[in-house]
């Protein structure tokens, strides 16, 4: 195993997209940011210097951070933000994860342009569990706004309304041929006849689950969220924001040019969304320059395709899923609309019928602290930063598919954590409340991978649905796309002490409070306890 050192300078950089140049926050002047390549077992040391005018932190999405929660990155959860002019060095070791993860800013909406791929190859000297590909290409799906994304979210929080949707989707930072002024930059992926290319697909978009396909080519899925899966072939992928999928593609078609394309999977009803299509070009080396073949993509609301795709995921072999459960949690996730008090400033209630949007888990809308991080407060015993009364179950269970009483549309606000003992075997049922709109929520847990043992539609029924649990070979993920109008059940062992954010990876939902903290206590002994905080941990 080796030590991989990198320097990230976060700074404003001119970026030209859709005919105009804008200043955007980038890492080392690159958008998307640098690709990090390591082997399983390596230690990463990344010094981040903030030369921008915003606070920033970097999160290593999906990295387990065993005992190194100080390097996880979400602002005010595991660290205070890195202020302009300051730096912080993230140090962590990749333990037992192989495939594709990514890194992104975890402050406000900076991750719109501050993100990049983290490629984890097998332990040095070990092969892939599939034939070695001839090439490997990261495919980062993203979202572009002509306006500064920080202004877009500020506007939304000031008015209580839904934020503006993006102006383009991107592949490796480029909108592609179908958008104005974008042909020149279109990203080109090469392949040779008979070759295979390992595409490492990441959904880095802020607010949109995306379909991805390649014209005339089959995709063989071999991994997701840095775990291998039992290989299966498909025409189309769906990734919720935060998710990654590794696919093999073979150059078995006539030497030519083919579009790779991505566009929205939109499960929310009556909500505005960006209905454009981003493309890149798959180009055979010997092909002449001709118009690429366009693939067909599922309709934006094609939930059947999403269900079939998500049901194709299995671990490659039998795995050890906890069967006895110590903490049995039921988390309802969804939106809400806060009524505005009569004397409230009118311009702050521009949501539907003079309300403000909100979102919650178990009817608690999460509020970040702003003076110190939750992990620091926990480790140093500083009171008054958060409470540990996050409910294991919603106060009232109701029919999540029916007409929900308006009294349930207005969550309370709070900085509440749910405490787990070291080693606890945890099950969480995640249920879409469908309040305001049913929606597919990509729920991400920091510090852990979890088994998705079941998912389904309607109301979760503990008796009936237990028979559907796959406790033999379920997939291991860090982000689950919870079915629209449905539920998912995840299981894991709380073997990593720390303060771990669990949230919807649609940034607009985390902005509205769809988040909570799982606080995993130290166990007995050094190997069961979090390491001491780094000396350069930022101050608030
Ligand atoms: Cu990829 Cu809390 O984030």
From TrEMBL:
Listed GO MF terms: copper ion binding; hydroquinone:oxygen oxidoreductase activity
EC number: 1.10.3.2
Top EC class for this record: oxidoreductase
The keyword Signal is assigned to this record: yes
A single GO cellular-component term on record: apoplast
UniProt cofactor(s): Cu cation
SUPFAM superfamilies documented for this protein: Cupredoxins
Gene Ontology biological-process entries: lignin catabolic process
Keyword tags: Apoplast, Copper, Glycoprotein, Lignin degradation, Metal-binding, Oxidoreductase, Repeat, Secreted, Signal
Subcellular location: Secreted, Extracellular space, Apoplast
Catalytic activity: 4 hydroquinone + O2 = 4 benzosemiquinone + 2 H2O
Pfam families: Cu-oxidase, Cu-oxidase_2, Cu-oxidase_3
UniProt cross-references to PANTHER family, sorted A to Z: LACCASE-5, MULTI-COPPER OXIDASE
Function: Lignin degradation and detoxification of lignin-derived products.
NCBIfam families according to UniProt: laccase
Name of the protein in its database record: Laccase
Naturally occurring in which organism (per UniProt): Arachis duranensis (Wild peanut)
């Amino acid at each position: 195993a080796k030590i991989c050192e990198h320097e990230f300078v976060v700074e404003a950089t001119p970026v030209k997209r859709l005919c105009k140049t804008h200043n955007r926050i980038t890492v080392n002047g690159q958008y998307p940011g640098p690709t990090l390549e390591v082997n399983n077992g390596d230690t990463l040391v990344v010094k981040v210097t903030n030369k921008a005018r915003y606070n920033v932190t970097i999160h290593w999405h999906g990295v387990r951070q065993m005992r190194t929660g100080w390097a996880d990155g979400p602002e005010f959860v595991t660290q205070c933000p890195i202020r302009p002019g300051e730096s912080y060095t993230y140090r962590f070791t990749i333990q037992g994860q192989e495939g594709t993860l990514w890194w992104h800013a975890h402050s406000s909406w900076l991750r719109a342009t501050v993100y990049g791929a983290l490629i984890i190859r097998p332990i040095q000297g070990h092969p892939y569990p599939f034939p070695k590909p001839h090439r490997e290409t990261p495919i980062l799906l993203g979202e572009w706004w002509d306006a500064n994304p920080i202004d877009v979210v500020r506007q939304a929080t000031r008015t209580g309304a839904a934020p503006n949707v993006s102006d383009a989707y991107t592949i490796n930072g480029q909108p592609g041929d179908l958008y104005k002024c974008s042909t020149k930059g279109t990203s080109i992926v090469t392949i040779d006849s008979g070759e295979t290319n390992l595409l490492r697909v990441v959904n880095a978009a802020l607010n949109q689950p995306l379909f991805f396909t390649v014209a005339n080519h089959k995709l063989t899925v071999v991994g997701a969220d840095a775990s291998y899966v039992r290989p299966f072939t498909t025409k189309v992928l769906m990734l919720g924001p935060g998710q990654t999928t590794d696919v093999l593609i073979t150059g078995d078609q006539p030497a030519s040019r083919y579009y790779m394309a991505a566009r929205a999977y939109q499960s929310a009803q009556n909500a505005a969304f960006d209905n454009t299509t981003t493309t890149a070009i798959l180009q055979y080396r010997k092909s002449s320059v001709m118009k690429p073949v366009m693939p067909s993509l599922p309709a934006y609301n094609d939930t059947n395709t999403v269900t079939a795709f998500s049901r194709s995921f299995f671990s490659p072999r039998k795995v050890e899923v906890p069967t006895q459960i110590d903490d049995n949690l039921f988390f309802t996730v969804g939106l809400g609309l806060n009524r505005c008090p009569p004397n409230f400033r009118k311009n702050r209630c521009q949501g539907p019928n003079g309300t403000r949007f909100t979102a919650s888990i178990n009817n608690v809308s999460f509020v970040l602290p702003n003076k110190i991080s939750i992990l620091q407060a926990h480790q140093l015993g500083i009171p008054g930063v958060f409470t540990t009364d996050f409910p294991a179950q919603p106060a009232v269970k109701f029919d999540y598919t029916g007409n929900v009483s308006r009294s349930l549309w207005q969550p309370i606000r709070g900085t509440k954590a749910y405490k787990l003992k070291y080693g606890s075997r945890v099950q969480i049922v995640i249920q879409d409340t469908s309040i305001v709109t049913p929606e597919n929520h990509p729920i991400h847990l920091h510090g852990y991978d979890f088994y998705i043992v079941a998912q389904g539609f309607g109301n979760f029924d503990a008796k009936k649905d237990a028979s559907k649990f796959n406790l033999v070979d379920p997939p291991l993920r860090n982000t689950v796309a919870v079915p629209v109008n449905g539920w998912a059940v995840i299981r894991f062992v709380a073997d990593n002490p720390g303060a771990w954010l669990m949230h919807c990876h649609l940034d607009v939902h985390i902005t509205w409070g769809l988040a909570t903290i799982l606080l995993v206590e130290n166990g007995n002994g050094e190997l069961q306890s979090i390491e001491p905080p780094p000396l350069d941990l930022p101050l608030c």
